[in-house]
Amino acid sequence: MMMGDDVENGNLGLYQDRPRTFPNMRSKPYTPLIFRVLMGINVRVLVILLLLGLGFVFYVGASTSPIIVFVFSVCIISFLLSIYLTKWVLSKDEGPPEMSQISDAIRDGAEGFFRTQYGTISKMALLLALVILSIYLFRSTTPQQESSGLGRATSAYITVAAFLLGALCSGVAGYVGMWVSVRANVRVSSAARRSAREALQVAVRAGGFSALVVVGMAVIGIAILYSTFYVWLGVDSPGSMKVTDLPLLLVGYGFGASFVALFAQLGGGIYTKAADVGADLVGKVEQGIPEDDPRNPAVIADLVGDNVGDCAARGADLFESIAAEIISAMILGGTMAQRCKIEDPSGFILFPLVVHSFDLVVSSVGILSIRGTRDSSVKTPIEDPMTILQKGYSVTIVLAVLTFAGSTRWLLYTDQAPSAWLNFALCGLVGIITAYVFVWITKYYTDYKHEPVRTLALSSSTGHGTNIIAGVSLGLESTALPVLVISISIISAFWLGHTSGLVDEAGSPTGGLFGTAVATMGMLSTAAYILTMDMFGPIADNAGGIVEMSQQPESVREITDVLDAVGNTTKATTKGFAIGSAALASFLLFSAYMDEVASFAHESFKQVDIAIPEVFIGGLLGSMLIFLFSAWACAAVGRTAQEVVKEVRRQFIERPGIMDYKEKPDYGRCVAIVASASLREMIKPGALAIVSPIVVGFLFRVLGHYTGHPLLGAKVVAALLMFATVSGILMALFLNTAGGAWDNAKKFIETGALGGKGSDSHKAAVTGDT
């Protein structure tokens, strides 16, 4: 019997006594156009097209380098493994009907938002592609382009094509992250009814599928572009482009990925945080109902937010980080090989692709090392999921050290400096240790087993204000150790590279910057496993919501609560890891920026003097931009959350039967509010990040033209980027760690500490969490 009939007949019982149905957010599931086209093609035709595509890829790869063939092979094997993981996850049952109905509502809401959001982003990307085309058609050519005979038009079309491909791949990476999470959540909920270990394994393998696809796509996308340009442009043949200049043509790919990731993070972040705040403030604090209670009108919007903010956006974000790091390291490798007159520079250029190919291998082993218990019928105590995940990470780290050392010996050995490969292997070790320390630091500050979060929870017992003060101080303190670690790793890696024995024609050491690049690669050499841990978080969070909404036994909710708390830590850990790798990578990108300016200006540009007033002003503007961007993003969340709070309050007032399970909330209304508001609000901060450097550079270039300083605009933009990066790293560390700590302080109280759920301490902790 449906809800409408029950209301008319007046015979509504408790939800627990009757089958529960939940409304779909959309009339039918959404599938992107590219997938609909592929699904409409005959299977045999599709197989033939796939084989032809693979044949072309391997032909182009073989014409370029055996190293590229190796990279293609590893990526394709990892894609096959990801298909196996998908089939394994989807073979698990979805549990009772009420679970799958809730999951369908979450899936439809997430896919509906994804379609609208990426439709908006794709229009902006096409507009920006036209702007890039116009700029490249009218700007001056570099000496490298002139020597290779690469005209303005060819350079412009190559850059725009690379930009659009990067944007497309970043979008697909985001969709893959969301696609698996909205299907795995209900299967984790169902597995939790049997054992915690099985639920953990399902969540990890679902995250592993997404991680392998994201990293594999970043690597194979760059490899295909590189090899296609190599063959098409006849690289290294007489009168054509040198192989050391080829990576410069890939810059558009990284920019396209960055563009999509920026707006995916903004839109998804505003969505998930606004829904979370709205649901918690009214539900937990005002009405005193549990988290993810089916009576809360904003609960579906909150669960949808986990998928679009923490899965789709994070997939696009890490795709962008890996793509930018690979391209910048390839550019630096090529530049260094050219300066040192290395006979075969391909090893130095393709080294980043090989490192990330091995990343796919070692992370796959780490993912598969997490197994379920053999007999799920035997009830064993709940193991600490974080311990199990860390064991998998330890396996991945050990294998990463071995494969990284092997890769450096294979590709970075040169007769000019026989021991250089060992120095670079140590640079990679510095990066791997940095990653491990970053994970440990973030875990220490965000896991409720450690003192900082417990101290934060204790501060909740004296009120909302003291909770907020303690959380802010914890976040500020948590910036110190990561910055010290980053500083030590940059100096160590630079020094190891500098003393590698590689020198230019004048006898000056040239390996310092490349050493830092190798350390960044080392830090990201376990990126696929780290992303797996990140995807685990929102999947576990969704599973807990489905268990609560479908009103499963308390023992099942205990299992999902433990997984959810660990998921909060892994999410914070991954963000910390991404911030650390971005800090190392930004040092490389900054150097690449100065090299690019020097090649266009035809004069040396080696340093930026902040004692020049205009340059110092550029630095101030850069720092200010971070705070203004953060302010606009927070204000966007606040405005959207206010709309949700008003809507939830309205429903509780106008439908008093909701609290007694006699009326059903209108979940769709909250989903619609958050979706439209987040799309509207993401434009302003995103435009600020893209337009500001252009405007500042243009204004100071005009000023420099009239004052006789032609490079003034470039120097001011350099200061803006440098200061913005430093301020951004600190701001990101503060916000990330404080947020994770507040969330887990609330989780700690919900375990029964300090009065447990519903107590004054719990309400103060909820305020801090929001």
From TrEMBL:
GO molecular function: diphosphate hydrolysis-driven proton transmembrane transporter activity; inorganic diphosphate phosphatase activity
Keyword vocabulary terms for this entry: Ion transport, Magnesium, Membrane, Translocase, Transmembrane, Transmembrane helix, Transport
Membrane topology: Multi-pass membrane protein
Keyword DNA-binding: no
Pfam family, one: H_PPase
Top EC group: translocase
Enzyme Commission number(s): 7.1.3.1
Cellular location(s): Endomembrane system
Any one of the GO CC terms: membrane
Family matches, as InterPro entries: PPase-energised_H-pump
The keyword Cytoplasm appears for this protein: no
Membrane-spanning segments: 33-61, 67-90, 121-138, 158-182, 202-226, 246-264, 348-372, 392-413, 420-441, 480-498, 510-531, 576-594, 615-638, 686-704, 716-735
UniProt name for this protein: H(+)-exporting diphosphatase
Organism the protein comes from: Herrania umbratica
Gene from which the chain derives: LOC110426203
